[in-house]
Write the C-alpha cells for this entry.
Amino acid sequence: MKVCVIGGAGYIGSHAVYELIRAKHEVVVIDNLSTGTKDAVHEKAKLYLGDITKKEELHEIFAIECAKKPFDAVMHFAAKIVVPESVEKPLEYYHNNVEGVRVMLETMRDFKIKNIVFSSTAAVYGDVKKDLCLEEDPCAPINPYGETKLASEKMIQWVCKAYDMNYCIFRYFNVAGADESLEIGLKRDNLTHIIPITVQTALGIRPSMIVFGNDYPTEDGTCIRDYIHVADLAYAHVLGAKYICDNHVSLTLNLGSNNGFSVLDVIKEVEKYHPVKYTFGPGRAGDPAKLIASSTKAKEILGWIPRRSLADIIKTDIEFRKKHELKK
Ligand code: UFG
C-alpha cells in the first residue's frame, strides 16, 4: 500500500510509520511539527511540512504525491490529545481536531482517496459504569477532547457514506511505551501522561509526582486505565488499513488489552526498577474512574492481539528515557 500518514512525526504516528515500513509499505508523512519532530520520522518515509487545517497545503502535497501514485489509504494522527488542556482550551481543540478532519476528508474526496484510518479514543465513551467498554456502548464524552473525537467519528461516517469511502476508526485506550529500537518514543515538553511522569520521577528527571485523586470508587481509590503498548497499537493500523482496502468495508474498533491497572499499580511496576516519590492530590477535571476496553472485535476481525504487557510498556519507556533524557 501507499499510505499518507498525517501526524506521522508525533508519538503514535511515528510508531505507525515504523510498523508500515517494517511491513514493506510506502509511506508519505504530513506533519506541522507542532508536537512531532523530524528525527522521529523513519528515514524511508517522505516527510512534508503541512498543516491539516490548511486546505491549500494538503492539496498541494496530495497533488504532488497522487500524480506519481494515488494513496491507497490515509491515516490520521494529527490531533491534540491532552484531556485537561482540552477543558481549558476547547476552541483550540475543536479547530485542530474537528476542522482538521473536515479539511482532510474534503481533500481525500477531491483526490478520490477511498480509505481512512482514524485515531479516536476511549474518551468518547465518557464516565463508564460497566466493566468493559464495547464498541456498541453509548458515547457520552465528559471532556472537550472526547467530544472533538466523537464529532470527527460522526463526520467520517457521514462522509464515507456520501462519497463511497471506507473507514477504520480505532478507539485507543491508554497508549504508552516505546519502540523496542528505542529510536522513537513519547518525547515532548510538558508531559501529562501517567507512565512517562512516573518513569521520569523514578529516574530523578522530576523530583516527585502527584497521584490525582484517591477517593474514586475503585479498589485502591485511584483511577483504573487499560494500558496498551504503542507498537501493538501501531501494528493494528497496518492490519486495519489493509482490511478496509481489501474488503471495502468500514469498522469501529477498540484497541486496548481487556485489563485494567490503577495509578498505584503503575507506580508499583515502575518501583520494581527505582523508587518513586509521590503524594496524593485532588482528582483531575474530566477524569472517569475506570476505562477498560473489550478488544474482542479487533481480535475477531483483524486477528489483532496486544503482545506486550504493562511490564513491557514500562520497561521500554524507562529504557527510552534513559537513552534520550538522562544523557543531557
Ligand atoms: N495521573 C496522575 N498523575 C499524573 C498524571 C496522571 O495521577 O501526574 C492519573 C490521571 O488522573 C488518570 C490516570 O493517571 O487517572 C491516567 O491519566 P493520563 O493522563 O495518563 O491518561 P488519561 O486516562 O487521562 O487519557 C488517556 C489519553 C486519552 C484517552 C484515555 C483513554 O490521553 O486520549 O487515555 O483511556 F482517551
Q: What stands out?
A: DSSP finds ten helices and 14 strands in the chain. The domain at 2-176+228-255 is CATH 3.40.50.720 (Rossmann fold). The mean pLDDT is 96. Residues 90-110 form the longest helix (21 residues).
